[in-house]
Write a structure and sequence with these properties.
The complex is a heterodimer. Chain A contains 16 helices and four strands. By secondary structure, chain A is mainly α. In chain A, the strands form two sheets. Chain A has a two-stranded antiparallel ribbon. Chain B is mainly α. In chain B, the strands form two sheets. Chain B has a two-stranded antiparallel sheet. In chain B, β2 and β3 form a beta hairpin. The chains are: A mainly alpha, B mainly alpha. At the A-B interface, α8 and α16 of A face α7 and α14 of B.
């Protein structure tokens, strides 16, 4: 990097550039270059860019809310919400309930969300109470609480009294299936809402609007009294406390918000994917969301809606186009999964090791 | 484990004296986790209605298979690094060595020892790098080590799935994918299958049970080594670092170096542990055998009564015994009680995750309380 820097320095004014470099960060630079490289490769290989872009847009909207769920906890200094599966399974429960009554279309979608929300707020409260007691170890505890909840929910899926024959195992009639298809219910309903084509690229208007709407809400929220208090809590808890902010309450609110967003995100994810994936599927749901938020520029201390949007766009585009492009170039060897692992975990490591004690 | 503890110990002793009768509670508190799991195991055994002979046999196998890995967790705990989730990285180094000896077609006990030897430089380098990263994330070692495991898994896959056959010249149709790039998903270890287990007195049975004597000897040696190590100067320095990094630094200990050494030792032991584990199983999944190692080992040592700041040999051994009894028993118990075997299986992973979550939460909670009470005084 030293060499590179010195080369660049001779071209531009050094202080200006270093400032930009420090703000941008080495990993983000690498990821942007990697993404650019992939697009150039795709262009050279004469791949259909419109398909790649359409798929990327789908994925951005599909995962957007889950990434946004990272925002509240980062803002208040609780850290990365590795316990995302706690909220995610609430969303799944909502989805399953709405399916049990064979609700379709927007009714089905919103019923799922309405069922999931109170559940997410309740579990969010309990989860917040736990995190409050383990201050300093939130991330590790959160990870394993998330895992434990997913494993515990596996027992729930197996034994819960759902009756709809399209959901339970055909043989034995007991326990839910591993993947429930939403084809007849509300699969892709947001994706197809007002969808149109632009230069051959499919724009999932409803999906992006939904994500955008929540980003806008979050943006507005952080301008309200409570929102500002949350930002202050994250920036300097001692100062916040002395200026009369109930730090504890702010942390509770942030975890509950994160949990609720994760639950809504789960429903959006499922409708976009077309399936409800139960059992162990939500186990590692937190990691891509965490990585995306960090790639967008969020740190353990500071995060904005902008970071979330940039992160979701960059990371999801990368994931979407890496697979087809590398497969075309390398003929059969699939390095996209490996690239995903190295990039997302490398990003998390970078965030964890960058600022001492956060 | 009764070595002098500096500040916190005297403080808690004071409080114990202040509140008479708290002593029993303290002991019960320390033993409560293993006791709870013993009860759970007994219930499970009764519910599963297992043939005791099958159970004992199974437990002997699993004790031999897993103890070494779990014991390798102790030293970083002493050095204050918490539970070393980075043990996965040691496991990967061990597997890399196994891949090499399988390629060279060296089998039997010599092959096993060669693998152990080859794994040392790999795990030392990997451990050194792990230590460097963890030293940059003080106070967050566990979550960092955990993510590092995933990251290393990516690098491992990159090496053995993409680079082998392209950048690293290798051709071995038995081990590699038909395209000539990357290794197959499963690897047969017939050559070193049970190499260590049957190395010593393999015909000597204890009643109806076959005992892997040499493996137990290796585990015993590691126990002795760990016990001896804590008494050496380096071990004492580690303990001091584990108690309080700042005090240790003030008294002239190179904290970062000590922490590096602790992680490196643990990584080497983890690699050997994985070798022992795999020679017992006899076959391995090139790309996933190491994934669960960290979690299962950590769950085991926690069930044995260890915490993030305190772990003994007994915690490790009892933990393996209890955890793996549950492992064997719970699917069968689930089958018998509810008629669905998966319930038991999910319950088992729920326990593994849950135990880690609860242990971490309890520890963080206690540290916070202790800090609060210290602030008051």
């Amino acid at each position: 990097m030293e060499l590179n820097m010195s080369k660049v320095k001779s071209i531009c004014s050094p202080s200006h550039l270093r400032n930009f470099y420090e703000k941008f960060g080495l990993p983000r630079l690498i990821i942007c270059l990697f993404l650019l490289g992939l697009f150039i490769l795709a262009f050279i290989m004469k791949m259909d860019l419109t398909i790649l872009l359409s798929a990327s847009l789908d994925r951005i909207g599909m995962n957007g809310l889950l990434v946004l769920a990272m925002l509240p906890t980062l803002v208040t200094g609780v850290g990365l919400n590795f316990g995302l599966p706690v909220g995610f399974v609430c969303g799944l429960v909502g989805g399953v309930i709405s399916m049990e009554y064979d609700l379709t279309g927007f009714t089905g979608l919103f019923t799922a969300m309405l069922c999931a929300l109170p559940l997410a707020l309740l579990t969010g409260y309990l989860y917040a109470a736990l995190l409050e007691r383990v201050r300093g170890q939130e991330m590790m505890v959160g990870t394993y609480v998330g895992f434990a909840v997913v494993a515990g929910m596996c027992i729930f899926w197996l034994t819960a009294p759902f009756k709809n024959p399209s959901m339970v195992w055909a043989i034995g009639g007991k326990g839910l299936r591993v993947t429930l298809t939403l084809y007849e219910h509300y699969s892709k309903i947001l994706n197809n809402f007002l969808a149109f084509k632009l230069f051959g690229v499919n724009i999932p208007t409803g999906l992006l609007l939904f994500f955008g709407f929540f980003c806008w809400l979050a943006h507005l929220f952080f301008r309200t009294r409570t929102g500002m208090a949350m930002v202050a809590t994250g920036a300097n808890p001692m100062y916040a406390m002395s200026s009369g902010i109930n730090v504890r309450r702010m942390r509770y609110i942030s975890v509950m918000m994160s949990n609720a967003l994760a639950a809504l995100g789960a429903v959006v994810y499922a409708q976009s994917y077309g399936f409800l994936q139960l059992y162990t599927a939500p186990l590692y749901m937190a990691f891509p969301a965490v990585a995306a938020a960090l790639i967008g520029g969020a740190t353990l201390k500071k995060a904005t809606v902008g970071h979330i949007i940039i992160g979701a766009v960059l990371f999801q585009t990368l994931l979407t186009i890496a697979l087809p492009v590398t497969q075309t170039v390398l003929q059969g060897t699939d390095i996209s999964e490996i690239a995903r692992m190295i990039i997302s975990n490398g990003m998390i490591l970078y965030a964890l090791t960058r600022n001492e004690r956060g | 484990m009764n070595e002098p503890k500096i500040a916190p110990q005297t403080l808690s002793e004071k409080t114990v004296k202040l509140k008479e009768g708290k002593n029993l509670e303290l002991i019960l508190g320390e033993l409560s986790v293993p006791l709870f799991f013993t009860a759970l195991c007994l219930l499970g055994i009764i519910a599963a209605g297992l043939n005791p002979r099958f159970l004992v046999n199974e437990i002997i196998t699993r004790l031999a298979r897993n103890s070494f890995l779990v014991l390798s967790l102790i030293i970083p705990v002493i050095a204050g690094l918490g539970l070393n989730f980075g043990i996965v990285i040691g496991a990967m180094s061990g597997q890399a060595a196994l891949i090499i000896i399988t390629h060279l077609e060296i089998g039997g006990l010599p092959g096993f020892f060669l693998a152990a030897l080859i794994s040392v430089p790999f795990s030392l380098i990997a451990g050194y790098l792990t230590g460097l990263v963890l030293n940059r994330a003080k106070g967050r070692e566990m979550v960092t080590g955990y993510i590092l495991g995933f990251f290393a898994n990516g690098v491992y896959q990159l090496i053995f799935l993409v680079l082998v056959g392209t950048l690293i010249p290798m051709s071995n149709p038995k081990m590699m994918l038909s395209s000539g790039i990357g290794l197959r998903n499963t690897m047969d270890l017939i050559a070193v299958n049970k190499a260590l287990d049957n190395a010593l007195l393999s015909s000597l049975r204890l009643g109806p049970f076959k005992i892997p004597w040499a493996t137990f000897l290796a585990i015993g040696l590691l126990c002795l080594f760990t016990a001896y190590f804590t008494k050496t100067k380096l071990g004492q320095q580690m303990r001091a670092v584990g108690q309080d990094m700042h005090i240790a630094a003030v008294s002239g200990i190179n904290v970062d170096r000590i922490r590096l050494i602790a992680i490196m030792i643990s990584t080497v032991l983890g690699a050997w542990g994985q070798l022992i584990y795999l020679q017992n199983i006899g076959t391995f999944n090139t790309y996933n055998s190491h994934e669960q190692v960290g979690m299962f080992s950590i769950a085991a040592i926690l069930i044995g009564g260890a915490s993030i700041s305190k772990a003994t040999i007994w915690n490790a051994l009892i933990g393996v015994l209890l955890f793996h009894t549950l492992f064997v028993v719970s699917p069968l118990a689930g089958q018998r009680i509810l008629g669905i075997p998966q319930v038991g299986e999910y319950f088992r992973s729920f326990l593994a995750y849950g135990v880690i979550a609860v242990a971490l939460a309890l520890h963080a909670w206690q540290t916070k309380k202790k800090a609060a009470s210290r602030d008051k005084e």
